[in-house]
Amino acid sequence: MKWSEVRNLYPNQFVKLKVLSSQIKNKQEFVEDMAVITPVSDQLATKELLKSKGDELIFHTANESIVLEIRQDVGLRRFDYLEN
């Protein structure tokens, strides 16, 4: 399903989606095809986002397109210093 179809079916609300296809360009992921899992109430949107895994996401249909910024994970290193 295309995002324009989702926006028409679920106007002005959050939806939980499964990404079926996307393209990555310049550190951005452009979602092209998706499956709607369920509409999500405004009150539960954050909770559902935290529970979503892998290719699932929560997005509001007020957005004209789904473009995700790709950020590289920054790990923290721990150094143990021995006293001499």
Helix content: 10-25%
What's the order of the H and E elements? HEEHEE
Note the quaternary state here: single chain
Coarse morphology: globular
What does this structure look like?
The protein has helices at 3-9, 45-51; strands at residues 14-25, 28-40, 56-60, 67-69. It has a four-stranded antiparallel beta sheet. It is an alpha+beta fold. The protein has one domain.
Short key terms for the protein model shown above:
2 helices, globular, 84 residues, four-stranded antiparallel β-sheet, 17% helix, alpha+beta
Q: What is the structure about, briefly put?
A:
Helix content is 17%, strand content 39%. The protein is built from two helices and four strands; from the N terminus they run H-E-E-H-E-E. Strands 3-1-2-4 form a four-stranded antiparallel sheet.
Topology, pairings included?
Blueprint: H1 3-9, E1 14-25, E2 28-40, H2 45-51, E3 56-60, E4 67-69
